[in-house]
Design brief:
By secondary structure, the chain is an alpha+beta fold. The protein has five domains: 46-118, no CATH class; 120-178, no CATH class; 184-233, no CATH class; 235-274, no CATH class; 305-428, no CATH class. 15% of the residues lie in helices and 30% in strands. The chain has helices at residues 14-38, 75-98, 109-118, 236-239; strands at 53-55, 61-63, 71-72, 135-138, 141-144, 149-150, 154-155, 158-161, 164-167, 173-174, 180-181, 197-198, 201-202, 221-224, 227-230, 242-244, 247-251, 255-259, 270-272, 288-289, 292-293, 305-310, 314-321, 327-336, 344-353, 358-365, 368-370, 382-384, 386-387, 397-399, 406-407, 412-415, 422-428. A hairpin with a 2-residue loop joins strand 12 (197-198) and strand 13 (201-202). It starts with 13 loop residues before the first helix and ends with a strand.
């Protein structure tokens, strides 16, 4: 370092001069190096002279240390930044306006940020208004919903009134496919008036039914006017497959009527009545009665014959003469033959009693009963019944004009003695 505190009387030594010269050289060298490194003492073609400033090869204005990080923006760059900021503010303002808030691109950033915060302040949804698990913003805060999501059918309380049923669904979201219901075991067809539909269920209950227990099969139950009734109608088909008739009625040359016992018949049972004489031997050959075809042939090759047996089955009031020829009137036991079907010409009827040792014989033609023939004062034909054990002449004379003995076109009715079996044979007239 050169001496800098010289006095007038100091002697200048050679080394002092050398030192001063060396320092001058060092300063000159340092200055040259600085000039070569910065060129700040010169002026570029676009820079102001004597200013520490320059433009780089790209025309970028620089200050301080000449590095890219220290570039000074040009006006065109600043204009671009200003336009970008203006465009951005306009877009932000438009977005805010779209969210229901008033905003403009001329608003400051502070104003715009405040309006952004106001976007959710007027929202009034609470967490219970948003589905559970879903998030939303309200009052500037992000929140999570708690509303139940109803996805399956479920039962609900109800209140009913005439013409209307109220169901109270549970709180929550219903997507339109979930059904809310209420259970009532009485909501069934049998509890609703017949033919009346209620919510898709048509009733079957009747209040005008008139069936009684006797109209319902025994052991079966039914509801009549809301009351359960147990039937009492006998099931005749279950009792007897061939049910005996209570009565029978025959319409000559027409029909046979059988009166069945009261009860139910399943359509496979039969009602029957005994008909011991309904056999082919009692039916004219070639004729059919109730499905039975006759084999009976006429006794002379042309006439028909029939036979049978029976007991007294009616009474008739007769005018008769006793063995002393006194005229008497009274009821007399009579035998009524079954339906024969052709005009009778003659009948032989005998009654036998093993108890009394008696035999009675009646021989009758179309208008007379004989062994003896005696006209009488009452008109008509007279019948005689002979006591064979007393052949001396005991007889009784019957007047058939008094609703008594007769031989008709299809059957006969003749006097009967005692309560015994009559055996008879008839021939066609």
């Amino acid at each position: 370092m050169a001496k800098t505190d010289w006095n007038l009387n100091d002697s200048v030594m050679p080394e002092d001069m050398n030192q001063i010269g060396q320092e001058i050289n060092d300063m000159a060298e340092s200055l040259d190096n600085h000039i070569n490194a910065t060129l700040v003492h010169g002026a570029t073609d676009a820079a102001t002279p004597n200013r520490i400033a320059r433009r780089d090869a790209n025309g970028q204005f620089e200050v301080g240390a000449p590095t890219a990080a220290n570039h000074v923006a040009r006006k065109v760059d600043l204009d671009e930044v200003k336009q970008s900021v203006s465009d951005g503010k306009n877009q932000i303002a438009s977005a805010i306006t779209g969210m229901g808030q008033t905003a403009s691109g001329s608003d400051t950033f502070a104003q715009l940020s405040g309006k952004i915060r106001d976007i959710s302040k007027d929202a009034n949804a609470a967490v219970g208004d948003v589905l559970t698990g879903k998030t939303f913003y309200q009052g500037g805060v992000k929140r999570t919903g708690t509303m139940a999501n109803k996805t399956t059918d479920y039962g609900a309380p109800f209140t009913g009134q005439t013409g209307r049923l109220y169901l109270r669904p549970e709180a929550g979201y219903h997507n339109g496919t979930v059904r809310v219901y209420t259970d009532d075991g009485n909501f069934a067809p049998q509890h609703i008036k017949a033919g009346v539909p209620i919510w898709g269920v048509t009733g079957t209950f009747t209040s005008d039914a008139n069936a009684a227990a006797a109209d319902i099969l025994s052991g079966k139950t039914a509801y009549v006017n809301g009351n359960k009734v147990t039937g009492s109608m006998p099931n005749r088909s279950a009792e007897n497959f061939h049910m005996p008739a209570l009565e029978r009625t025959i319409w000559q040359d027409d029909k046979v009527f059988l009166r069945p016992p009261e009860g139910y018949y399943d359509g496979y049972s039969w009602i029957m009545t005994p008909a011991g004489n309904l056999n082919p031997n009692n039916i004219r050959e070639g004729a059919e009665i109730l499905g039975v075809w006759g084999t009976l042939r006429a006794w002379n090759g042309e006439k028909r014959t029939a036979s049978g047996s029976g007991t007294r089955n009616t009474n008739a009031q007769l005018v008769y003469q006793d063995s002393s020829y006194y005229t008497q009137v009274g009821d007399w036991p009579m035998f009524q033959s079954p339906h024969i079907g052709w005009k009778i010409g003659a009948v032989v009827m005998t009654t036998t009693s093993a108890t009394y040792g008696e035999n009675f014989l009646t021989i009758a033609f179309s208008d007379i009963v004989i062994n003896r023939y005696s006209p009488n004062s009452h008109g008509g034909w007279t019948g005689v019944m002979i006591n064979l054990n007393n052949w001396s002449g005991s007889y009784i004379i019957f007047n058939t004009k008094s609703n008594g003995a007769s031989i008709g076109s299809i059957d006969f009715q003749l006097p009967h003695m005692h309560s015994r079996i009559d055996y008879w044979q008839a021939w066609e007239l």
